[in-house]
Fold this protein.
Amino acid sequence: MKIRSITYFDNLQWPLDQERIQQALDFIAIARNTYQGGGFEVQTTRLATPPFPLILGEKMAQEAINFAEAIEERLISAGFDYASIGPALPDYPMSYEILPEVLANTHSVFTAGIISSSEIGIAPGAIKLCASVIKRNAVISADGFANLRFSALANVPPGAPFLPAAYHQFNDKPAFAIATEAADLAVTAIKGAKNLEAARAKLINSIETQAADLTKLGDDLAASNALQFAGIDFSFAPYPLAEQSIGTAIELMGVPALGHHGSLAAVAILAEALDQARYPRVGFSGVMLPLLEDTVLAQRGIDEILTLNDLLLYSAVCGTGLDTIPLPGEVSEDKIFAILLDLAALAQRLNKPLTARLMPIPGKRSGDTTDFDFEFFANSRVLKPKAQPLTGLLTGDEPYKLTSKVIVERDRD
């Protein structure tokens, strides 16, 4: 298991305050050394601010690019690997429209757009804006790579340490959280297990053992630096090697190939093990199925076994939703809207956080193989969306709420 990220959350203002910047840089250096000294490999360190529209206000249109560039220049170059300036907000439509320019002018800054929340419900207008952002991001570079740094957020609260979903609660004091890359723990627990219950027990024990060490170091860091340790997003995030693939774990459980029936049951069992484990949780804390970041998922996409609809289905019982999904470059905004609407409805009805990181690739068609040259990607097949433009009542712009099934059942008791 590795630490995917130590994510520092701070209420940065604009113009940037040098004292706060130095505090962030000093802490992240100490935190990295502390966790590495404790035996954990730290892949990245990341910064997350409150949603940028709340920081910039009326100056947003003029200052968003300057804000993002300043963070990249003064924080990324000095100690952080990546940063998130938080999501665009439905109350600020302009905040969505300027995001492609922000991404085009930076290399290590991530951002997002909210499409649904518990407060406003599903926001079709924001979904349409996100669909436009995704299309515009796709042509920033010839390979469509800029969409790696953008995600649509459905019911995602502040404090999740994974990017692009990370953002800070405005006016909260500085905090930090840990994001794990822990798919290998699932692989190890399942290998050689006598039965399912033995595998589950071994996995839960492994999670709790690792989490206890992470928590002890986090609590000590918080106490000595007057910060809040927000917790651990203990997710089965993969790396593109077979032994660090969540797809490997699923197939070791007995699924002939990920995408066949039985896959959902396997994903649900793994997610439930995380629910049963005791640790201070934050963010998704689930099974992550990023197509391009997992060797087995990528191969099952090439094999035409794993589809976009399969991944949406598994989102009902697992972690982040639709992540690093290659789509045809010609996919229309209307079709992207339909995909995002389904994701938002699923998040609302199940009262859970989900994201969509969709990557239309210029010049690629459904069935083509991707050709990214990126350490954290395994190339796969461009998926064919089962989508056509919606019509009628589903195309309106007014927000609406879907009551969670869990809440409805509680009210009946």
